[in-house]
Amino acid sequence: MKSKIKSCAITLSLTLILLPVQADEYYKPVSKHNSVTFEECSACHMAYSPEMLPQRSWETIMNNLENHFGEDASVSPGNFEQIKAYLTDNAADSGWFNTRFAHGISDENIPLRISETPYWIHEHREIHPDYWRSERVQSKSNCMACHRHADRGGYDDD
C-alpha cells in the first residue's frame, strides 16, 4: 500500500512540475478528444481548444450559433448538447486549476474571441497590427499562419 501511495505521489509531483512548462505551448486539440465538436467546428475554421476560453464564453457562443460571428452555425439538438458539454467541461476555468487563458478575465467579462483574452493579448503584444491583415495571416483567428502545429495543440513560437 505504501509503495502505491508513494508511486501516486511521485506521479502527481512530476505532473505538477512539468505542467506549467507544457501549458505554455500545448493545449489539447479537439480532434483527439471529441469528434463531433471537431467535425462541426472545423467545417468552417480550426476547432479551437476549449482550454482557451472560460465556460461562460463557450456557453454564450453556443447559445448564439444562429449568429456565430455573422454566420449561421446551427447544429442538430443532439450535437448541440454534446458540443456544449465538451466545451464547457474542458474550458479554461473548468478544472482544479485554470489554464493561462483564464487568468486576468474578470467574472463580468465574457470574451467571445480567444484574441480578446488577456493571455492571448500578452503573448501577441509585439506583433504589429498590420501583420494581422497581411496576405499570409489575414486574421487573428488564423493560428495556423504562425503556429503550424496549432491544429495538433502546439502553439510554440514557430
SSE diagram, text form:
Blueprint lengths: L1 H22 L6 H4 L1 H7 L13 H8 L14 H13 L28 H6 L35
Helix pairs in contact: 4-5
Describe the structure.
- This protein is an all-alpha fold.
- The protein has one domain (25-152).
- The chain is 38% helix and 0% strand.
- It is built from six helices and no strands.
- It has helices at 2-23, 30-33, 35-41, 55-62, 77-89, 118-123.
- α4 runs antiparallel to α5.
- The longest helix is centred in the first third of the chain and has 22 residues, at 2-23.
- The N and C termini lie far apart (46 Å).
- Residues 10-23 have low confidence and may be disordered.
Task: Give structural attributes.
158 residues, mainly alpha
Short description:
The chain is 38% helix and 0% strand. It has 6 helices and no strands.
Q: State the separation between the terminal residues, measured CA to CA.
A: 46 Å
Q: Overall mean pLDDT score?
A: 85
Number of strands: 0
Radius of gyration from the alpha-carbon trace, in angstroms: 17 Å
What is the global morphology? globular
- Please give the largest β-sheet: none
Task: Please give the domain count.
Answer: 1
Low-pLDDT runs of 5+ residues are: 10-23
Protein structure class: mainly alpha
Order of helices and strands: HHHHHH
Distinct helical segment count: 6
Percent helix among the residues? Answer: 25-40%
Tell me the β content. Answer: under 5%
